[in-house]
From TrEMBL, chain A:
GO terms for molecular function: sodium:proton antiporter activity. It comes from the Bacteria. This is Monovalent cation/proton antiporter, MnhG/PhaG subunit. Pfam families: PhaG_MnhG_YufB (PF03334). PANTHER family: ANTIPORTER SUBUNIT MNHG2-RELATED (PTHR34703). Belongs to the CPA3 antiporters (TC 2.A.63) subunit G family. The chain crosses the membrane at residues 6-31, 43-61, 67-91. Keywords: Membrane, Transmembrane, Transmembrane helix. The keyword Transmembrane helix applies.
UniProtKB/TrEMBL annotation, chain B:
The chain crosses the membrane at residues 6-26, 38-58, 64-87. GO terms for molecular function: sodium:proton antiporter activity. The keyword Cell membrane applies. The keyword Transmembrane applies. This is Multisubunit Na+/H+ antiporter, MnhF subunit. Keywords: Cell membrane, Membrane, Transmembrane, Transmembrane helix, Transport. GO terms for cellular component: plasma membrane. It is a multi-pass membrane protein. It comes from the Bacteria. Its main location: membrane. Belongs to the CPA3 antiporters (TC 2.A.63) subunit F family.
């Protein structure tokens, strides 16, 4: 039983570390702010959540904390990335090679002071 | 016998995460614009969270998960408030 848990822990930790490394490499190498945000999302979701899954098997006491932390992370990471991306767009950082731009009208509507309705 | 393998992978992963945190801190120091630094700060928070979880795994106690829970909540909140401040230069 113990060896099974041990194998699971080894696999989860290695895959989690691999995702963290890939995320940070993406954070450094990618050209644009928005693509960098895409890379950092991986670290916080896959890297840490897999480590927590390893924690579920390895630490003997109270698995409840791990599940709460996994839930919090899966909720928090996308929201934070979304907030930073919208802040970057409103700051005027030009996204490169843009296929579609749905945010342009929203920002115009915000900026022009004419009262609607 | 499996414990030694698990111990070695945990220590290896901890070392890798510490190196990654260092790289991120250097990147925050050298960021081109303010959003890069904000992303870097968020990333440093996440990697610190990973280091905490790894320490919990190495020590086999679950006390560190409380610290990690607090760090996750606060780090996330900090990113949101900073992003909002940067977006329209006024807080709340």
């Amino acid at each position: 039983m113990e060896t099974l848990f041990g194998l699971i822990v080894i696999l989860a930790v290695l895959i989690g570390t691999a995702f963290s490394v890939i995320g940070v490499i993406g954070f450094i190498r990618l050209p644009d702010v928005y693509t960098r945000l895409h890379a950092t999302g991986k670290v916080s979701v896959f890297g840490v959540v897999l480590l927590l899954l390893a924690g579920l098997f390895w630490t003997p006491v109270s698995p409840g904390k791990d599940i709460v932390l996994i839930g919090l992370l899966l909720l928090a990471a996308p929201v934070a990335s979304h907030a930073i991306a919208s802040a970057a767009y409103r700051l005027g950082i030009p996204p490169q090679q843009l296929m579609r731009n749905d945010l342009a009208e929203v920002v115009e509507k915000e900026n022009d002071p004419t009262p609607q309705g | 016998m499996i414990e030694t393998w698990v111990e070695w992978t945990l220590i290896f992963s901890l070392a890798v995460h510490i190196v990654l945190t260092g790289v991120c801190v250097w990147r925050v120091w050298r960021g081109q614009n303010v959003i890069d630094r904000l992303i870097g700060a968020d990333l440093v928070g996440t990697l610190a969270l990973a280091v905490l979880v790894l320490i919990a795994l190495i020590e086999r106690t679950s006390i560190y998960f409380d610290v990690a829970l607090g760090l996750a909540a606060l780090g996330f909140m900090a990113s949101i408030v900073l992003a909002k401040y940067l977006a329209d230069q006024r807080v709340l």
